[in-house]
C-alpha cells in the first residue's frame, strides 16, 4: 500500500498540511504534527458537541477511532530508529477520570498532578528528559494552580547523512539572502533521481531528498520566488509523501525544469552523471500558541470555559485553557535533528584529465525554502518548517560560493568537511 494510503500517516500528514497554511512568510519556523496529533486524538475520544466535531475535522478521523489510532501512532514513532517519543496525561486529584477513557490510553501514560506547580514542573521535565535523550525540558504549557489536566508529548529526532556535505562560505548576489555571508553546504552525487519537480496549484516545486542513516530523509522544498511558504509546505508534503506526482531528475530536459534547477552537459573526468546540490545550514527555534489560531487544530469550541466539553473524560467540567508547542530544527553538514515538545492544558567531496561529457543537474537552494523530515517507509512527516534566514558563516570556514548567473553558483577554494 502506498504510504499516503496508510490511515495513520495520512491523517497526521493532513494535520501537517493544515498547520503549514498558518506559516508567516517573514519568519523561519519548525513544527511537528506527530507531537500534537495524538493529544488531539485523546481529547476527541472524550469530547462532545461542537468541540468533538471540530476535533474530528482537524484529525481527519471519527472521534471513536482517534484514541486507538493515537496508540498506533505512538507505537509507530517509537519504532523509528533515531526517534524518541513519549506521551503523557496527568490529572489532579479532583478530576475523576472515566475508566473507559483511561482504558484507551497507552500503557504507562497516566499520572497525577500534586497541585504544587514547582513539584509538578520538575516531575514533568524529568519525564520529558528521560524519553528524549535529554533534548527536551519541561512541557511548554506547564502545570499551574488552575490546571486540572495536562496532556503532553515529547519528540526528538536525530539522523546522520549517508553522504555528508562539504562546507563553504555562501553568498547570493540577489534575493533576500544577498549581501551577507552564510554557512553554505555543497555536495555532488551521480543520483539525479534525488531531485524532483512537482507541478502544483501554487506553481512548480523543486524537492531535493537528503538521505539519512536512520530511515529518515529530509526533503528541501523550493517554490517560485512569489510562492507563499504555506503553499510550498502544503503541496511539498503531498509531493514528498507520494500523494502528488512528481518528475525525477533523470527525466529532466536541458534548461531550467524547476525552481533553482539548471540542467546542462559538462566536461568531467568521470563518466557518471552529476547532481550538484548547494544549500545552507540552518538552526531554527519556534514557539507556537496553538490557540492563535485555534481553527486548524480543532480547538475553537473547546477553549470556551463557560461550559465543559469533555464529559467522556471526566465528570469534572473541562475546557482547553492553553495549547502550545516548542520546537527546534538543525540542518548541518553531517546530519539533522529536530525536537518538539507539545502540551495541552485543561482548566477549570587533483582531478585526472577530462575525458567525458556528462549530464549535470544543479539544484541551488539560495533563497527561502521549506523542509520536511519524512520517515522513508511509512511516509509520515515527522517535522516540517520554513528557512527564512540561514546560519551565518562561521569565522573558521573554508572556500566561497558566489552566484555567477541566475541559478548557478561557483565554488572558490576547497570543498571539504570540517574536522
Please give the structural blueprint.
Blueprint: H1 7-20, E1 29-31, H2 33-46, H3 49-59, H4 63-78, E2 83-91, H5 99-102, E3 110-112, H6 117-131, E4 149-160, E5 166-171, E6 182-189, E7 195-200, E8 203-211, E9 216-222, H7 229-240, E10 247-248, E11 261-268, E12 274-280, E13 282-289, E14 320-331, E15 335-346, E16 356-364, E17 369-375, E18 381-387, E19 400-405, E20 408-412
Parallel strand pairs: 2-3, 5-19, 12-16
Antiparallel strand pairs: 1-18, 2-4, 4-15, 5-6, 6-12, 7-8, 7-10, 8-9, 9-17, 11-16, 13-14, 14-15, 17-18, 19-20
Helix pairs in contact: 1-7, 2-3, 2-4
How does this model look, in words?
This protein is an alpha+beta fold and 419 residues long. It folds into two domains: 3-159 and 283-346, 2-Layer Sandwich (Antithrombin, Chain I, domain 2), CATH 3.30.497.10; 161-281 and 350-412, Alpha-1-antitrypsin, domain 1, CATH 2.30.39. It has seven helices and 20 strands. The strands form three sheets. A seven-stranded antiparallel sheet has the order 1-18-17-9-8-7-10. The chain has a seven-stranded mixed sheet with strand order 11-16-12-6-5-19-20, with no helix packed on it. The chain has a six-stranded mixed sheet with strand order 3-2-4-15-14-13, covered by helices on one side. Helix 2 (33-46) runs antiparallel to helix 4. Mean pLDDT is 84; it is low at 1-6 and 399-419.
Amino acid at each position: 500500500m502506498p504510504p499516503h494510503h496508510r490511515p495513520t500517516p495520512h491523517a497526521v500528514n493532513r494535520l501537517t498540511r493544515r498547520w503549514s497554511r498558518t506559516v508567516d512568510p517573514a519568519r523561519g519556523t519548525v513544527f511537528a504534527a506527530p507531537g500534537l496529533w495524538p493529544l488531539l486524538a485523546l481529547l476527541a475520544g472524550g469530547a462532545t458537541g461542537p468541540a468533538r466535531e471540530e476535533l474530528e475535522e482537524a484529525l481527519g478521523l471519527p472521534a471513536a477511532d482517534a484514541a486507538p489510532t493515537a496508540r498506533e501512532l505512538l507505537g509507530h514513532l517509537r519504532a523509528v530508529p533515531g526517534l524518541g517519543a513519549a506521551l503523557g496525561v496527568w490529572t489532579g486529584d479532583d478530576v475523576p477520570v472515566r475508566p473507559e477513557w483511561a482504558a484507551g490510553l497507552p500503557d504507562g501514560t497516566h499520572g497525577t498532578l500534586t497541585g504544587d506547580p514547582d513539584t509538578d514542573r520538575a516531575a514533568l521535565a524529568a519525564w520529558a528528559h528521560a524519553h528524549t535523550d535529554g533534548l527536551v525540558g519541561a512541557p511548554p504549557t506547564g502545570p499551574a494552580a488552575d490546571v486540572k489536566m495536562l496532556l503532553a508529548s515529547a519528540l526528538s529526532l536525530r539522523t546522520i547523512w549517508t553522504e555528508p556535505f562539504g562546507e563553504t562560505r555562501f553568498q547570493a548576489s540577489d534575493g533576500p539572502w544577498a549581501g551577507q555571508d552564510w554557512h553554505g553546504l555543497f555536495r555532488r552525487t551521480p543520483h539525479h533521481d534525488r531531485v524532483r519537480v512537482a507541478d502544483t496549484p501554487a506553481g512548480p516545486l523543486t524537492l531535493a531528498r537528503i538521505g539519512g542513516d536512520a530511515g529518515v530523509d529530509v526533503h528541501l522544498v523550493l517554490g517560485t520566488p512569489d510562492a507563499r511558504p504555506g503553499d510550498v509546505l502544503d503541496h511539498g508534503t503531498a509531493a514528498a509523501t507520494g500523494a502528488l506526482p512528481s518528475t525525477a531528475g533523470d527525466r529532466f530536459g536541458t534548461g531550467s525544469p524547476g525552481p533553482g534547477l539548471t540542467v546542462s552537459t559538462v566536461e568531467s573526468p568521470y563518466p557518471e552523471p552529476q547532481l550538484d546540490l548547494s544549500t545552507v545550514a540552518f538552526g531554527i527555534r519556534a514557539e507556537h500558541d496553538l490557540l492563535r489560531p485555534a481553527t486548524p487544530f480543532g480547538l475553537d469550541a473547546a477553549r470556551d470555559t463557560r461550559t465543559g466539553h469533555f464529559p467522556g473524560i471526566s465528570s469534572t467540567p473541562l475546557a482547553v485553557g492553553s495549547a502550545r508547542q516548542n520546537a527546534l530544527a538543525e540542518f548541518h553538514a553531517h546530519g539533522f535533528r529536530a525536537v518538539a515538545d507539545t502540551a495541552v492544558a485543561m482548566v477549570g567531496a587533483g582531478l585526472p584529465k577530462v575525458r567525458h561529457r556528462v549530464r549535470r543537474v544543479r539544484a541551488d537552494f539560495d533563497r527561502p525554502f521549506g523542509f520536511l523530515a519524512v520517515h522513508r517507509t511509512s511516509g509520515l512527516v515527522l517535522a516540517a518548517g520554513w528557512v527564512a534566514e540561514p546560519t551565518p558563516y562561521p569565522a573558521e570556514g573554508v572556500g566561497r560560493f558566489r552566484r555567477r548567473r541566475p541559478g548557478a553558483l561557483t565554488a572558490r577554494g576547497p570543498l571539504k568537511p570540517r574536522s
